[in-house]
Amino acid sequence: MTAASTSLSRRSAPRRRPPPNWFKRHERLVFAVAGVVAFALIWEVGSRLGVINELFFSRPSAIARAGFEEVQLPRFWVDFQASATEFSVGYVIAIVSAIPLGLAAGWYRRLQYTLDPWLNFLNSLPRVALLPILIIWFGLGVESKIAVVFLGAFFSIIIPTIQGVKTTDRRLLDVANSFGASRARVFLTVVGPATVPFIITGLRLGVARALIGVVTGELFAATTGLGVMISRASASFQTDRLLFGVLIFTFTGILGVEAIRRVENYFQRWRPAKQGA
Fold first, then answer.
1. Which of 28, 69, 135, 237 is deepest in the core (most CB within 10 A)?
2. Do 90 and 145 touch, CB atoms closer than 8 A?
3. Would you say 223 and 140 are in contact if contact means Cβ atoms under 8 Å apart?
4. What does the alpha-carbon distance between residue 161 and residue 163 come to, in Å, rounded to a whole number?
5. What are phi and psi of 142, to 5 degrees?
């Protein structure tokens, strides 16, 4: 009996899965790096074989060489600092203003009715059309570019935030109300956590819109910035320097999205893990 019960308990006990190895833990990174390296190799070989015209699309080795030469110039760091300031200040202001306002507009119906016409109007308006007005208001300095970055990121964050509050699971609200929770507690414990994925989506979209705002503002009217460097390289057909500037914005967007993804994982620890994830 003892042996039988011991055998039965061993069979019924859940089997512990072995801890994932290094490849399983870093599978996403490995495949991402492999894809980038494969693309760069195909690009390099195609350029050296003459399949890709280097006059219009420089090869990776030439871009790396041009970037190495560019970062040694003091002018590059002045341009980099200007673009980084425009992006970071405008994006932070958009986050600080869009998230609280979006939560409030989604929670209070009348506030949403008041803001809806303005949000729809300003979000549909091309940012480039506002550049002349912003330059008249703020001048040719970094202030006008910060305003363009703010406008690009603000609407990308506030609209998903409002939608997230409105689409909170009604069953969760009913359960909270049935236990006599106050409106403030329902908002903090139910609506807030349920809105986090929508806010994260808005932040991801906001990174791209903010970078577009930096490039657009600097190409339109600026004396310093990476957009000015790209414009100068384009005028002189230096595609290696041009693509180096483009890749800086590209990698900045990738790093920004990756940082936001890590923030999302931190705030989403309470959610149950998906099977087979």
1. 135
2. yes
3. yes
4. 5
5. -70, -20
